[in-house]
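DNA ligase (ATP) structure dump, as promised
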Amino acid sequence: MARADPLARYNAKRDFKLTPEPAGKVEKGAGNRFIVQKHDATRLHYDFRLEIDGVLKSWAVTKGPSADPADKRLAVRTEDHPMSYADFEGVIPKGEYGGGTVMLWDRGTWAPIAGKSAKDIEKGHLHFTLDGDRMKGEWLLVRMKPRPGEKRENWLLRKVDDAFAGGTDDLVGRRLTSVLTDRTMADIAADKGGEQSLQGAKGAAFAKKMAAAAAHNKQVAKPVAKPKASGKPPKFRPLQLATLVDAVPTGNGWFHEIKYDGYRAEIAASGGDVRVFTRNGLDWTDKFAPLVRHIAALDLPPCLIDGEIVAYGKDGNPDFSALQAVLKRGHGAQDEATALHLFAFDLIEQDGKSLAKLGNLERKERLEALLRGARPPIAVADHVIGAGETLYAAMCGAGQEGIISKRADAAYSGRRSKNWVKVKCTRRQEFILVGWNPSSAKGRAFASLLLAQREKGKLVYKGNVGTGFDAAMMADLAKKFAARERKTAPVDVDAAVARKVHWLKPDLVAEIAFAEFTAGGSVRHASFLGLRRDKEAKEVTPEKQQPAPEPASDVTISSRDRVIFPEAKATKGDLADYYAAIAPVMLPHMARRPISLVRCPQGRAKKCFFQKHDSGSFGDHVHHIPIREKDGGHEDYLYVDDADGILACVQMGTIEFHGWGSHAGALEKPDRMVFDLDPDEGLAFADVKKAAADIRRQLADIGLVSFAMLSGGKGVHVVVPLDPGHDWDAHKDFSKRFAEALSLAEPDRYVATMSKAKRKGKIFIDYLRNQRGSTAIMPYSARARENAPVAVPVGWDALADIESAGAWTIRDAAALLERAGSAELKGWGFAGQKLPAL
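structure tokens r here:
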């Protein structure tokens, strides 16, 4: 009996005279291809396809794949597709089956995990790995039990928790262009190739609305696809160094990271051109070649990244000795178990601009956004705000080296300071090898090594180390010693110590662990960890613990008991405490922006007023910048750059902070676009959430990543971060035409005018905040409203489950800080993208 044609359903559903899709026939392919196509048909979905038996087995994933193992995505089984469909990208005509825009969103190879096979599909449980441009690692497809009368075959697609898992990467939210042509959905809908066009943002109809909204200008906006990285990698810059302290700094003004046991490295990248520098500026690109290839594959814009390169030991922890072994074996000996890994923790420069003056946490958020698509062996180092003692205890309990604590609002100084401090679980320092004692044991090259450090320019003896060596390490050191032997002692020691010593040229630096220093200054219970090839002997001085920095503020809050929010019985002191706690995550979005304040000195229920100018009454922590106004004159506007600046404003009765769409250093170059969705009184919050999702989708179709924020009032803000390469006229014009296009496309739902008469039953898309001098509420700002609500950044998935725009209040600082460090909000509000050009 002839086998049924697996593509019969596919062919029967299509008229190939009308659709550009390929006709179906079974073909022999490589046997392991997979693709994902973004498909804007009746509703947007992602078609996931696996090559099996000469066809593409297919599932429609309604929300698209997620890298978070907690997300179980509905995947509806559809008809098999032909192999030729794997390269299809284009527009299926309206009225035809599947009519809409199709983008090739991901592609690569797949394989069942060991012991499994493609035949497991018939069992309803397929466990497999993917190696695509975007989807990687282990995944599961599991068939759901059908409900009575249900005809479609429902499955769940889920990421397995492995090295490629993680909710920090919003796969579908940030991957907006084709892996085949680098086009947006709008470009494909308009059948544009190399030329980028806004047409097709919701099919050609939306483009016509956009053009109608710009009747004064025949041109429509053209989304600029992410440019290929160009220019040379940045030059090496001196690294910020941490001061050793005796305790973990306390307070929310600090965030804390693991102190990784490896080599400090500065990564200079521009596309495929990558350089790796040591802490002293030595070019070690060749030594880290396997890692360099992974960084180059990210095609980063010109940037300078600070981080630590590590290798893992047998216990699964970063281990300095393991790193030494990997480097000694060389590139050819590296495998998954001995690979080099990069933990990035700072972004010093990007696109030719220094970020050093930004706060530590703001640079970290920008780094999260830059490396959001990275996968192991590249990762952004995790951090916690406050709670450093808990992290420290966990690291010491796990046998790790310790933690690094960073003042959240401090700049990158490129030197050692107390804005970065380190707290170690065990004593470890660098020492200079100055000699060795012979061993009487067979096969042992030496008995112990003599150690020294430089004090006031002179080498000082610090004792011996005789443990921590394996045979290979001893043999390697013996070779190095033979080339460095000298007759005279480079350091003063007692005759008894020097009696059998073979002296060495003092240029080898070793990492030594020890219990303590003796009263005479020698190490006790020392253990050799490895040579430090990235440090010079002249740098090696004693590292002495200093007292941990104390939390301090120069701002005194008076009248702390004054009730500011009567309904919530919240006082001025409560408000100040909220801002003191939330300042670290608020400042990355507000620092150095001109701000306007809503001041309510007697409380929100009494007289409040808007203030944007100041003659100096706020004190030294609130800064001024002269700004030209419409009449040609100049006025001093306010801005802050640290937590004390925020508190100084609160002391003067401030409740709300509203900020410009540009920074004080580049006033005429906006970098933040906001669409404020303001519903008519009769509309439910669900209508606002749906509108926000629609706007997100329209922006995504033209290649723009956006973020959601609860306003703390009635609505939602859709925030679009932008590179500051355009002026205010272009900024306002784009936002105006975008809002008007939406109101023209769906006049029953949206209005783009402030006229209250026209807003009945509709949502006002307020674009007017995107003009010079206008402001928008800042993330985490309190609102002068009943019960003290705050404006809160949220993830797009989380927004669906939130019931009001005022879901959090000033009482929720601890919860908001915890949320700010969650996977869904890492890098919130930051994305490198240009405004669609005119």
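Residues 37 and 104 are 5 Å apart (CA to CA).
lmk if u need the other ones
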